[in-house]
Specification:
Layout: E1 16-22, H1 26-37, E2 42-46, H2 69-82, E3 86-89, E4 92-98, E5 101-106, E6 111-119, E7 123-126, E8 141-142, H3 145-148, E9 157-160, H4 167-173, E10 180-183, H5 192-200, E11 204-206, E12 210-216, E13 219-225, E14 230-232, E15 235-238, E16 241-244, H6 247-252, E17 256-259, E18 262-265, E19 278-280, H7 291-329
Parallel strand pairs: 1-2, 1-6, 2-3, 6-19, 8-15, 9-10, 9-15, 10-11
Antiparallel strand pairs: 4-5, 5-6, 7-16, 12-13, 13-14, 17-18
Helix pairs in contact: 1-2, 1-7
Length: 330
């Protein structure tokens, strides 16, 4: 292996990696760094499509608040390679268990085998089909109050509900502004009690359909409604439909569990899935994993994987000692 940024694609018929990691975002690179520094032979397969790539800055990341997400990934790639981890730009599309562990197949037909598999493939956001919304995604249109609420302090906030349960986001944002309008047309009818509580907290409700985003320069200025009216907002908090990039996990037969955000791959506290030898980390396992949580889940899984491998190595040594002792006694 090499520690340079020009890592050659490993020959699949000659290499059996200790760990293959699918996904090179915050979770996958965190796992790769821990394992590479533990002297494990680590291969990361990455499409360079982190979920937060549309955002110019990330927030709530200790020591990196305001840092660009793609810069964080670039830093991580350099660190992993400096520790002799190998990163290949490739899209994993299949995986299956083998006698050696797991074989992963990429879109270009390459095949890689690892004794363990960590899936850090993340998830995707599907925005409502409203003109102008996608163009502002990650800047004037965002999703997470913890990530972008502070920057919206004192501004006019629009909350674009996708479900009645999304009302909680409006209540979270109330800490940042007293100028909040909830747009309900995309959601099912709000219960009367929810409407009264929103009103009690000074949050406006608008049931008209949103038909477009009005911008001034490159900034959100307002939302256009179905009747032609325009409601001034400075930032829009949307509720995109979230879907895990979990095709590989489904092919391997990993169990799912229902949660507040739908069915997601079930993992234990260490990131283990129901498939022995397979871990899932970051948004592949937790749709609510912010960057620090994703990084922590990658590190947690890496420690568990390395600990499991050490236990196997110790057990093999103990078995060898037992055989030798038996032979000596004979």
């Amino acid at each position: 292996m090499t520690g340079t940024s020009e890592s050659p694609t490993p020959a699949p018929d000659r290499e059996i990696w200790d760990v293959v990691i699918i996904g090179g975002g915050a979770a996958g690179l965190s796992a790769a760094l821990i394992l590479a520094r533990a002297r494990r032979r680590v291969l990361v397969l990455d499409t360079q499509e982190p979920r937060n790539r549309f955002a110019p800055h990330m927030h709530g990341v200790l020591s990196r608040d305001g840092y660009a997400p793609l810069d964080l990934v670039a830093d991580g790639r350099r660190e992993v390679r400096a520790a002799d981890g190998v990163i290949v730009d490739a899209r994993a599309i299949e995986a299956r268990a083998t006698g050696d562990g797991f074989e992963v197949v990429t879109a270009d037909g390459a095949r890689f085998t690892g004794r363990r598999l960590i899936v850090a493939s993340g998830m995707r956001d599907a925005l409502p089909d409203i003109p102008g919304l996608a163009e502002q995604w990650g800047r004037g249109v965002v999703a997470c109050p913890y990530c972008d609420g502070y920057e919206a302090s004192g501004r006019a906030i629009g909350v674009l509900l996708g479900s009645a349960a999304g009302v909680h986001k409006a209540h979270m944002l109330r800490a940042y502004s007293d100028d909040i309008t909830v747009f309900t047309a995309l959601a099912e009818a709000l219960p009367e009690q929810d409407r009264r509580v929103l009103a009690q907290r000074g949050i406006r409700i608008d049931d008209r359909a949103v038909t477009g985003v009005v911008t001034e320069g490159d900034r959100v200025n307002a939302l256009r409604l179905v009747d032609g009216a325009v409601v001034q907002v400075d930032v829009v908090f949307a509720e995109p439909a979230m879907a895990a990039r979990d095709d590989v996990l489904r092919l391997l037969g990993a169990d799912r569990a229902e949660g507040p955000m739908g069915a997601w791959t079930a993992v234990d506290a260490l990131g283990r899935t129901s498939v022995p030898g397979v871990w899932a980390v970051g948004n592949a396992a937790n749709p609510g994993a912010l960057v620090p949580i994703a990084m922590g889940s990658g590190a947690t899984a890496a420690l568990a994987v390395n600990g499991e491998m050490i236990a196997e190595e110790v057990a093999a040594a103990q078995a060898a000692v037992a055989v030798r002792t038996s032979e000596e006694a004979a």
